[in-house]
Amino acid sequence: MGTRIAVMGAGAVGCYYGGMLARAGHEVVLIGRPAHVQAIGHAGLRLETRSFDEHVQLSASTEAEAVRDAQTVLFCVKSTDTESAAAQLRPYLAPDAMLLALQNGVDNADRLRAVLPGHIVAAAVVYVATEMAGPGHLRHHGRGELVIEPSSRSEALARMLIAAGVPTEISANVRAALWVKLILNCAYNALSAIAQLPYGRLVQGEGVEQVMRDVVAECVEVARADGIGLPADIEAVVLALAPTMPAQYSSTAQDLARGKRSEIDHLNGFVVRRGAALGVRTPANRVLHTLVKLIETARPAHGLDPA
Ligand code: KPL
Questions:
Q1: Which residues form ligand 1's pocket by a CB distance below 6 Å?
Q2: Is the pLDDT of residue 77 over 70?
Q3: How far is the CA of 184 from the centre of ligand 1 (A)?
Q4: By Cβ atoms counted within 10 A, which residue in 23, 177, 215, 234 is the most buried?
Q5: Can you give 255-281 as a three-state secondary structure string?
């Protein structure tokens, strides 16, 4: 019944969307790390959500070559790995393959286009609360909607995602939507990572809301200087996130807890760099960026604080 879909980056985002499409009957291959690939090869992908807990059958590989024959590629690697992962795919990508970039940060689709000229690339804004609970085991805490950039293939892809249970919208202003998501990430990710707290408990912390307001105000100024039109109620949008995913640890928190390099250079770090280029001061973002970088180097793996 389905189309062949490859997922580059079988982490929490890639496994969720790849798993939902496989569950809807599409042929999906996940490309990821050996521990996940082995577990998925053995028992399928365990997709544990609030409404079902199933083992979904799909294929998995550690090799970029598995992208061969895929018409659609969900590109789900960390923003730090965009160029290297795209270069790994390049020799094997079908000429008509479309890539959908499901990543944090605002410039991944452009970076992908630079490495893969001639391919259809569309950016996606992702709102999903997920974690890898173990090898081959994806836990979904809620949400999952996508906003995707228009392209010659976006309508068909959106229909396929919606039919698979993924609410998807096409937006002509994906740049602004990516900035809104970036601002959410700037407000939550570093604080959740530094404190190792899920959003519900994080926002109850003394002074946290004011720090978030400061971070948002700086981001809004940088966006304005960059010519991005943001919704007038952006601060309210940011503060409204925590109740929609109270048990969620930011991806940055999950990375630090596992001793992995985070995406912070593409979140608060990006705002600091863009602000410097545009003459906008960003002290709150700078402190958060620096603290996460310090923890990355000073503290390798430590445990997650239970929700
Ligand atoms: O994008 C996210 C992340 O943790 O990186 C969510 C969970 C949507 C918000 O922080």
A1: 104, 127, 129, 184-185, 188-189, 248, 250-251
A2: yes
A3: 8
A4: 215
A5: HHHCCCCCCHHHCHHHHHHHHHHHCCC
